[in-house]
Amino acid sequence: MQNSILIPMGKNPASMAALRKARGIAQHEHSRLYLLHVVEPREKGDVLGAATGAPTHGLDREDLARGQALLEAWWERLNEPMAAVNFLVRDGKLSETIAEEARRLAVDAIIMGTSRRSPGWKGTIGEIKQSTSCHLIVVNEEEKSVLEHAP
């Protein structure tokens, strides 16, 4: 039983496939959904921060507003609102932030979408698998599972 599911959301069609799959599980098992959008740090002319690896950008109001709007737009596209959904916008490295939120929220599962054409998807998923103790389901744009990992 999946009582809570974390769904990392980006701008790609595979994110919507992951959301549809999670919604199906949530409707059947009455799960709480957490939609997460990660804003990765970007360099803003901070040479010292870039050289040392220190964060060069934190979330500002525009980042939060854009992230919130993105999550709400994906959710509204399903056209089937549910009360048990939370929108989260965080900053950080994608895999680390997903794993951190999964631990913080104590979710039972992470369902994420990916495209095999996306560079680095195996590395990101590998890092998440190693960093979390919850069920991980990765789906493609057609909503077919390409990986399921149960620790």
Q: Which secondary structure elements does this structure contain, and how are they paired or packed?
A:
Layout: E1 4-8, H1 13-29, E2 32-39, H2 47-52, H3 61-78, E3 85-91, H4 94-105, E4 109-113, H5 121-131, E5 135-139, E6 145-149
Parallel strand pairs: 1-2, 1-4, 2-3, 4-5
Antiparallel strand pairs: 5-6
Helix pairs in contact: 4-5
Protein name: UspA domain-containing protein
InterPro entries: UspA
Family: Belongs to the universal stress protein A family.
Q: Can you put this structure into words, describing what you see?
A:
By secondary structure, this protein is an alpha/beta fold. The chain has a single domain, classed as HUPs (Rossmann fold), CATH 3.40.50.620. The protein contains five helices and six strands; from the N terminus they run βαβααβαβαββ. A six-stranded mixed β-sheet has the order 3-2-1-4-5-6, sandwiched between helices. Helix 4 (94-105) runs parallel beside helix 5. The chain is globular and about 35 Å long. The two termini are 15 Å apart. This is UspA domain-containing protein. It comes from Salinicola socius. Belongs to the universal stress protein A family. InterPro entries: UspA.
